[in-house]
Amino acid sequence: MQGNLTKNSQEKLVVVTTDSVRLEGNLVVPPTAQGIVLFAHGSGSSRHSPRNRYVAKVMQQAGLATLLFDLLTSEEERIDLRTRHLRFDIGLLASRLIDTTKWLAQYPDTRNLKVGYFGASTGASAALIAAADKPQAVSAIVSRGGRPDLAGTALTRVQAPTLLIVGGYDVPVIAMNQEAMAQLRSEKQLQIVPKATHLFEEPGALEAVAQLATQWFQRFFV
């Protein structure tokens, strides 16, 4: 039992095989979970991101299952640290997110759960593309400081209710999210967290993100 996890929730290390590579993830399924949130991390981040782990903890305490997993292998991450190109290969990231969603539909602990995506930075665009390609598989999406503009024309095909969360001081990203809002045809909402920058490092900012995201998923996992 991990010290930062909810009571009766056991964190499991799981491995998802996709595109002939093995992706590692940390899975937590509370006993009464009705849905699971897949975390699509942003550029230069991983499943060990303290920010995403904090948000996942809040969700677990609210009874939501979570899967924090790496969209890139360890070797790919080392390459990306030098080239910085894989983190912007949104099509690759989206395809791996889709394959992981298919894996959840077969895994005994998660196959009966509704699925949501929590995407940060470039991971948000991958989540939107994956949801557009597999509309029946995704119940809700949350973007944290995301780059939904990188999802391109897929925005108009997204059917899942989508919450965009942006920091009040993250001016360029606010504009990108406002433009994406105009293209989304699904139920949608833009929440701006006052006095927060891109990484939501200010006191209370990440807590606000976690609460907004948890409430959004709870609403659509019923």
Task: Write a concise keyword list for the protein shown above.
globular, disordered N terminus, 6 helices, 8 strands, eight-stranded mixed beta sheet, Rossmann fold, alpha/beta, about 220 residues, single chain
- Please work out how many helical segments DSSP would assign: 6
Gyration radius (Cα, Å) is 16 Å
The main pleated sheet reads as: 8 strands, mixed
> Given this structure, which CATH class is correct?
Alpha Beta
Low-pLDDT residue spans: 1-8
Given helix and strand content, the structural type is: alpha/beta
The CATH homologous superfamily is called: Alpha/Beta hydrolase fold, catalytic domain
Q: List the strand order in the largest sheet.
A: 1-2-4-3-5-6-7-8
Mean pLDDT: 90
Strand content: 15-25%
Q: What is the CATH architecture annotation? A: 3-Layer(aba) Sandwich
- Overall structural domain count: 1
The quaternary state of the protein chains shown equals single chain
Helix share bin: 25-40%
How far do the termini sit from each other?
28 Å
Shape: globular
The CATH topology: Rossmann fold
